[in-house]
Design a protein that fits this description.
seven-stranded antiparallel sheet; binds 6-O-phosphono-alpha-D-glucopyranose; Rossmann fold; 613 residues; single chain; Glutamine Phosphoribosylpyrophosphate, subunit 1, domain 1
């Protein structure tokens, strides 16, 4: 994620840039910065913290430059700090760059630049970009008469990964150069001034006319002119689009709510979580973990500790860890774990999951394990968050900022990351046949497109939501990982629709809850494990006999006629099936809440991050 803004015109750039960043804070908010050009020099003002802090930086209000670039950061490489904030400059301060995305081969490029005498001030991947531009500016074989554009093009040619980039230079004080690949970037056109942003809302109050940049397209943006070039720097015309959004819907990229946007982001957030951690035929890579085969062979149990949705992701992760690593895993609620003297010693590995990394109980539970000699791993979505500063090791989901209180994309990314971690441990331990791990890898790589298939048609779920949104109670049933996802589906429903709901292991139904089933009570069954199909169908049959209205989410061939509604989802390994089966459950909770006219993103009494006990 991260948000970027650019301005070139006749007005002071700084207030326009900061104003733009403020409306992009939903893309990231751990540090911010701007760069402008004054007296033939680049001036950079940046710091850790939210965009508003920029107003307090020394001298920022006196900047008169009428060209500038700006950035609000969501850390991926390097903790949130002043040094790691954007913009970054090259060593001779000829080029300033802001960047959204991840440069996957930055280590190699950094080594190359160091060998050419360049030095680095930050831990970021981004800092290689201005230095590469400078390198090519001085040493490149230029392919265009605009040496600035040509140097950017040569530098970008070396980058692997994703990027939206803006560059300014005092040697070319009237131009912003922009380019993108797999990361959004728009150019806004106005009269005698032009704008750039990673997203439309940042500049919607200045113009409604936009060019939407495509991958590998370059833009040269000056006060009165916007020129576009293809990857060979051949100039061409682009169509201007008129966008009549209001600012708040634009932030949500046209989605009505952040929750819906985040549900639909899941193909991409899962892709980001997988990142370059593995590919087929190659072992998993966890540079950020120093866990050896000897250590793993010495432990006798794993605890997964978390709260809310993160804890339910842990329940799904338990199955895959136990199956692949043959180590017993206990999943615990952080607020319980911390007060019940859990049996922990140096033979215990404790994994803590927290999207925000700020949940008080989860942090306290982690400190307790450390005191008792256990190794701790934090799984978080927020780089530099409190929990990652306490843990022995931290690994990140990279799902991008999650704004809606009800967690969706963080949950699927947590399960994916736990599964990759389990494969890594199993590869070290040799605890699982390699062909089984290979099959799971292939299934994980297919998850983004399978999630997309579910998202492509939501009509059945919307129909069902319309029929049941006035209900007072609902039940979710499943066995194995389907039970884990039933718990998450039930939590989603409670959180945003305020309907009472319970999730039960389907086999447990007869031991009490079945007494609550009467005419028209809604029961949602999840059936994805081939071995348990018949048993799960029998359990649902028991509630149908008692008048229940049923919805079944399944990837198996089941007799549709038995049930009121059936939602078919793609097949995958049952240990990761919650990543797919949760999608209809998230959508169901969402559409029920909408039918009731509730505030989906900010449900009553709930907070996104619970920093108190
Ligand atoms: C709150 C949120 C939940 C979240 C839980 C744990 O209750 O409303 O959505 O699952 O905290 O948050 P964490 O940031 O630790 O994952």
């Amino acid at each position: 994620m991260c948000g970027i803004v650019g301005y070139v015109g006749t007005k002071k750039a700084t207030p326009i840039l900061i104003n733009g960043l403020l409306s992009l804070e939903y893309r990231g908010y751990d540090s911010a910065g701007i760069a402008t050009i004054e007296n033939k020099k680049i001036i950079v003002k940046k710091d850790k913290g939210r965009v508003n802090n920029l107003y307090n930086l020394d001298g920022i209000n006196n900047l008169n430059g009428t060209i500038g670039i700006a950035h609000t950061r969501w850390a991926t490489h390097g903790k949130p700090s002043k040094e790691n904030s954007h913009p970054h400059m090259d060593n001779s301060q000829n080029f300033a760059v802001v960047h959204n995305g991840i440069i996957e081969n930055y280590r190699k490029l950094k080594d190359f630049l160091i060998s050419k005498g360049y030095s680095f001030l930050s831990e970021t991947d981004t800092e290689v970009i201005p230095n590469l531009i400078d390198y090519y500016f001085k040493n490149g074989v230029h392919i265009h008469e605009d040496k600035f554009l040509s140097s950017v093009k040569l530098a970008v040619g070396d980058l692997e990964g994703s990027y939206a980039i803006e560059v300014i230079s005092p040697l070319f004080p009237d131009e912003i150069i922009v380019v993108r690949k797999n990361s959004p970037l728009v150019v806004g056109k106005a009269n005698g001034e032009n704008f750039v942003a990673s997203d439309i809302p940042a500049i919607l109050s200045y113009t409604k006319n936009f060019y939407l940049l495509d991958d590998n397209e370059f833009g040269v943006v000056s006060k009165d002119n916007i020129k576009f070039f293809d990857n060979n720097l051949k100039q061409y015309e682009k169509n201007l689009k008129n966008i009549e959004w209001d600012a708040s819907s634009a932030e949500k990229e046209g989605f009505e709510d952040f929750m819906l946007k985040e549900i639909f982001e899941q193909p991409n957030s899962i892709r980001e979580t997988i990142g370059s951690r593995f590919s087929l035929g190659k072992p998993c890579v966890f540079d950020d973990l120093d866990i050896s085969k000897e250590y793993l062979s010495s432990i006798n149990k794993i605890y997964i500790v978390a709260c809310g949705t993160a804890m339910y992701a842990g329940l799904a992760g338990k199955t895959v860890l136990e199956k692949l690593c043959k180590i017993p895993v206990t999943v615990d609620i952080a607020s319980e774990f911390r007060y019940r003297n859990p049996l922990i010693d140096d033979k215990t590995l404790c994994i803590y999951i927290s999207q925000s990394g700020e949940t008080a109980d989860t942090i306290a539970a982690l400190k307790l394990a450390k005191l008792n000699g256990a190794k701790t791993i934090a799984i978080s979505n927020v780089i530099g968050s409190s929990i990652t500063r306490e843990a022995d090791y931290s690994i990140y989901t990279h799902a991008g900022p999650e704004i809606a209180v009800a967690s969706t994309k963080a949950y699927t990314s947590q399960i994916v990351l736990l599964s990759i971690l389990a494969m890594h441990f199993a590869e070290l331990l040799g605890s699982c046949p390699l062909n089984e791990i290979e099959n799971l890898k292939s299934d994980i790589l297919d998850l983004p497109s399978k999630v997309q298939t579910i998202l492509d048609d939501t009509t059945k779920i919307q129909d069902f939501a319309k029929q049941v949104y006035t209900q007072k109670d609902m039940f979710f049933l499943g066995r194995g990982t389907d039970y884990a996802v039933a718990l998450e589906g039930s939590l989603k429903l409670k959180e945003i629709s305020y309907i009472h709901s319970e999730a039960y292991a389907a086999g447990e139904l007869k031991h009490g809850p079945i007494a609550l089933i009467e005419n028209n009570v809604v029961v949602i069954g999840i059936i994805t494990d081939e071995k348990l199909v018949e048993k799960s169908i029998s359990n649902l049959q028991e509630v149908i006999t008692r008048g229940a209205k049923t919805l079944v989410i399944t990837n198996q061939n089941i007799p549709n006629s038995h049930f009121d509604f059936v939602i078919n989802i793609p097949k995958t390994d049952s240990v990761i099936s919650p990543v797919l089966s949760v999608i209809p459950l998230q959508l169901l909770a969402y559409y029920i809440s909408k039918n009731k006219g509730l505030d989906v993103d900010k449900p009553r009494n709930l907070a996104k991050s619970v920093t108190v006990e």
